[in-house]
Amino acid sequence: MSGTANDFAVMHFSTEGVPERERAPLLRDFIGPMVARLDIEPEGDGPLHFEVAARAVPELAVSTLAFSPVRAERTRALTADGNDNILLSCLRSPGNTIVHRGNELMLGEGAGTLLSMADPFGCATLSGIARGISISVPRKVLTAMLPDLEDRFARPLVADSEALRLLRDYVGLIDHYHMARPELRGRVVGHVHDLVALALGASREVVEAAGGRGLRAGRLHAIKADIRASLGQRGLSLTAVAARHGVTPRYVQALFEDDGTTFSHFLVGERLARAHRMLSDPLQATHSISAIAYAAGFSDLSYFNRAFRRRYGATPSDVRAAAER
Questions:
Q1: DSSP alpha helices (H): ranges in the chain?
Q2: For position 212, what pLDDT does the model report?
Q3: Does the residue 158 lie in any domain?
Q4: Which of 152, 186, 221 is the last residue of a domain?
Q5: How many whole angstroms separate alpha carbon 107 and alpha carbon 113?
Q6: Which of 221, 256, 286 is the last residue of a domain?
Q7: Alpha-carbon distance 152 to 164, whole Å?
Q8: Residue 149: CB partners within 8 Å, gap ≥ 6?
Q9: 258-263 — which CB contacts under 8 Å span 24+ positions?
């Protein structure tokens, strides 16, 4: 299944329900035009299982993958399609082998590498279900930030590097947002380009000199996700969050200021939103309003009631009553 909206294309493909003999040809037809033309065959005696969700905008394609053991090859004949993009591949599975530009790599779980679509390569995943992402960008985009780009293909990337972690987290935005506005798409694409360059070893100074804001955007996204996951913690503070991310409290405040808000305003807004969701949920009807307020991270019930009414124009009791009706 696939769809497009202006210059934003979305593709979902699964071999579930497809006859085994038709899976590999259908997969090649679906994944080729958006990501890369590859010959893909199952490895071993089992049938091919493959799921891919791909989203493409000008100068960027991001794919989320899950598949059984396979061998994939981009042959010399397939490189004649003119695609000279670079592909950053990062898989969470053991036993990944890549042969590219005369190098053979055995990649550990979570590690990534860079592939050139202009050159043949072969990949094999030999055990379990592999899960991961691939990011395709035009070669010219990274040349200014990585003058030695051609020397970086078929080299392992450090799986737990900060830049690669931020990149993996940030591209999740593309999976959850429609990005209907062209200006939003342009910003997201630029941020991903910056984070790819950083993951490949470009210095922060070089990326920022090229006009990039990807590192700051990636960190802000990671900090927001951390806050949302920790709303119920009583010790959640600017200082604690900054320490967890290895930056100063002032740096965190500056990130939120660039986003048009403050740390405190964002934190209170997320806690109010969680309380509103809980009050609107029939499954939470047995919990008192005070228990819900505390679960959302508020320690002062009077403050919670005032802030809730300012935010939603109704009291917590009103929201609960409306949900019950």
A1: 20-34, 139-143, 162-176, 182-199, 204-209, 214-229, 238-244, 249-258, 263-279, 289-295, 301-312, 316-324
A2: 59
A3: yes
A4: 221
A5: 8
A6: 221
A7: 15
A8: 86, 139, 142, 143, 200
A9: 258/216, 258/220, 259/220, 263/238
Residues 49 and 189 both lie in one domain: yes
Tell me what pLDDT residue 4 has.
Answer: 45
The token duo for 261 is 């808000």
The reply to whether 180 and 274 lie within a common domain is no
Percent of the chain with pLDDT over 90: 32
pLDDT at 135 over 90: yes
> Average pLDDT for residues 165-192, to the nearest whole number?
75
Residue 298's domain comprises: 265-324
How many degrees, rounded to 5, is the angle at CA 267 between CA 263 and CA 268?
Answer: 120
Tell me, yes or no, whether 141 and 13 share the same domain.
Answer: yes
Lookup: tokens for 26? 């259908």
CA distance 270 to 276: 10
Q: Buried b / exposed e across 133-157, counting CB within 10 Å, b at 16+?
A: bbbbbbeebbeebbeebeebbbeeb
Mean pLDDT estimate for the chain: 85
- Please, which residues bridge with residue 63 across strands? 54, 134
C-alpha torsion sign, points 79, 82, 83, 84:
positive
Residue 53 pLDDT grade (very low, low, confident, very high; cuts 50, 70, 90): confident
Of the candidates 10, 12, 19, 24, which has an alpha carbon nearest to the alpha carbon of residue 51? 12
Out of 93-97, 103-107, 242-246, 272-276, least confident range: 93-97
Ranking 105-114, 152-161, 208-217, 236-245 by mean pLDDT, the lowest is 208-217
Do residues 309 and 166 both lie within one domain? Answer: no
Looking at the fold, whether 116 and 183 belong to one and the same domain comes out as: yes
Query: Average of pLDDT values for 135-142?
Result: 90
Residue 168 lies in a domain: yes
What does the DSSP assignment read for 44-78? SSSPP-EEEEEEEETTEEEEEEEESSEEEEE-TTG
189/289 same-domain check: no
Q: Which two tokens stand for residue 278?
A: 């809980």
Cα separation, 154 vs 79, in Å, equals 17
